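If you are new to this repository, start here. Below is one unmodified record pulled from the training split, so you can see the exact layout before writing a loader.
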Amino acid sequence: MNIMELLLQDDIKATKQSNTNGGEYASACPWCGGKDRFRIWPGQGRWWCRQCQKTGDAITYLKDFRQMSYPEACRFLGREPGSRGSLGKLPELKESPSWSPAPPKTPPPTIWQDRAGALVKNTSQALWSDQGVVMRKWLEKRGLKPETLRALQLGFNPQDLYLPRPDWGLPEIVDENTSKKKSLWIPQGLVIPYFNGDKVQRLRVRREGQINGQKYILVPGSSPSPLILGRGEAMVIVESELDGMLIYQEAGDLVQVMALGSAQLRPNAEVVKMLRKARLILVSLDNDEAGAESMWGWWLQHFPQVKCWPVLVGKDPSEAYQMGMDIRPWVIAGIPFLVERFRPKAPHQNSLQGVAKDSPTPKIHHFPVPVTPGLVMPSVKFRLVQDAEALKEAVESLVNCPVLGLDTETTGLDPFTSRIRLMQLAGDGLPVVIVDTKRVPEDDLEPLRRLLTGNAIKVFHNAKFDLKFLERAGLQVVGPFFDTMLAEQILMAGRTGMEFKLKDLTKRHLGLELPKELQTSDWAGDLTLAQLAYAARDARVLLDLRAKLRPQLIKAELVETARLEFACLPAVVDMELNGMKLDEDAFAVLGEELIREQQVLESLLRDTLGDINMNSPDQLLRALYRKGMTLTNTNRETLAQFSGAYPMLATLRSYRQVAKLVQSFVNKLPGHIHSATGRIHPDYRQIGAATGRFSCRHPNLQQIPRGHGFRDCLVPEPGKKLVVADYSQIELRVVAEITGDERMLQAYHNGQDLHRLTASLVMGKDLGQVTKEERQRAKALNFGIIFAMGAESLQQSAQSRYGVNLSPDQAQTFRKKFFQAYKGINCWHQDVKADSPRETRTINGRRRIWDSHPKITELYNTPVQGAAADITKKALALLVGKLNGSPIKIIGAVHDEILLEAPSDQALAAEEILKQTMIEGGSYFLKKVPVEVETGVLENWSGK
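And here is the target side for that same chain:
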């Protein structure tokens, strides 16, 4: 088995690049992911990654990638240990036919070199005179030390010079317009010489301003060769000479550095020879220039040992240095053989910790990792806080900010078993403050607590996640909130194929890529500068996104919807953190009973239908056909329709129902009990549906049935009670509000049961004569016809959902009588049909939009369900404020129902608070119809 076969087993597909060396193939690197950087030579049994520098053979691959031991790898390949053979030599670089290096230029004439040497001497003296004070301070700010400036003989030209060209050995040039001889112009500015031995070969001047877009001027007669400094097996390529000098100063004993002067400069043949000798080439061109970005690919194409190594903050090494990046560990981290050379033997020996300049405590730890170049979000300035005094100072800088972008980096996703490592706070125009909670003791976090409870608008993305961790850490955050994820979901409700991660919003609204490779990195140990830069960007971008999203919310008239969702956030956090308790013993008994019932039903079915797969519709249809039951399918509606005629179908329905309960709840619910709390903590999606309703998962408490004993097993803790409240017929009340139907409004104001009233109207009976079965039939009519079910759909829904049998004639007759009785609903239906809108609104203005023509049922259903969701969320938002600091806890919300857990002696008070708050929430939106809430103080969720 060769390396190509191993790659295919790991689903890594390599494509052939050439026939040289017995065939060369390329694929993404299994380690670093570099696209087409992983090169394979099957004939030689060798592989090598151009980016991360890993190399080896099939055994190395099995050891490093599949984590096999050496003997295991040998056995896997069918070899004896020790028979590995010699490793082949890596193929040499083949020059691209599209480019060949230019021959080296001849050096400047001797007279030019002498004149340039004299100029360098004079300008160097000027730099160290009073004339050069400002320039020296500017260079010092960029990180260049006085000894570096002297060693490299930088100078300051205090005024523009216009010199005779022949004096420098340059030919005369006559201006065509004036017929005057042109002078050699040497502008005012920083003079940057390049020597070969003791002779000047090149002069560049950095001006204060730009001329024709140029800040750097190459003095005529200079050699175009790049500046090369330092020594070492690796080469670092940068654009600016000042960047090169900084790297030379910090790491010139480890690497050579080449400063191109321009990203577009291509090396001549002499320089190419030097590059060929380099063991590894790090290319770190400026991040903010389109031309530079295009050159990354050029270097990768023409030199196989090239690795892209952009700075982690800022646009170039000098700017990164000013923003806190330590140059030396950044260089070392890009060169694997240097990483191994300097890797600390023990934590206290780590001489390569990236300590931010002039800091008494380490700010950056371990080795940084590369950031992919491209159209990425620009790096942002940040300050790392690792002690109480720094925290106090940082908070002072943010205290007057009206809006704060907040984010956290955590050691895991579970707030009960993981913790916050970093808290990032972004204020407009200020460096992002990054608080390292591992370094700052909890007792010293008081300034942060005051800031989080202040009046500033707190901007998060997926605030629920951060707020849960902050709550667990004892850091309460008080609104107002702005959640960019919720804001986008509000704006895009109904759109298909939308993603709502932070990187998706950043690309959609800001046109920038937000790298997320570090999201799942190790946040518990020593942090890299790359991780800190990543954390800072995530906080800063929140302010930019809010600035984009807020005007859209205003324009779309969705501000009230957004305020409602943001105000509901603390309640959702409480529901998830508090969770619900499952009586495991009672649940185990229930599970055994249901499993036995499933086995009995399955046995009855097999006795009649034979030994078939009960989960296979095809096998079921054939078996039923053999028993004289000809069906087109075995879905729920069909089985319900024919169960009266064929009792076996009723048994099949019961089997499926019980089997689903066993699969969905008996087998899974205990697995959701958290080991740290002993409770179930579901994940509530605040805008889980396009209508605005909650969804729930892990587990889905909204699907736990009322019957079969499941809710009996959801109980309070000892000494406590469940307090449960449910809106009475809230969707029908919303319909009455929307349609203004007089009969519905009158019924609710008179305290009548609408289902009983409907039965009376469509069946021609007095209210007092309506039976329980007739009321159930009317319930099917109310919830079916209101949302535009036709006669056939109504018939099927009545049977499958409500256990009511309707003949086709009955369904048609009842529909007709229903619309005659409720004329407001009939008018509403006709208006919606006539308008055929592509968007709907709730009473609160919540919007749903459709990419294509919606179903008519969706147009009726959405504003009703959406308004009911708004009502429940309003109640939750009000409730969390009333219960703040109380032992009464919100533990769940299922559609129109809210659940509390309260100490037994406070249960009745909790019931009254819950009832009045839910009425208040409903009355906020429903002005024409009264709101009723049914409540109970219970020993378990079922109320039994």
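Two things worth knowing about this chain: DSSP finds 32 helices and 32 strands in the chain. Residues 382-556 form a domain with the Nucleotidyltransferase; domain 5 fold (CATH 3.30.420.10).
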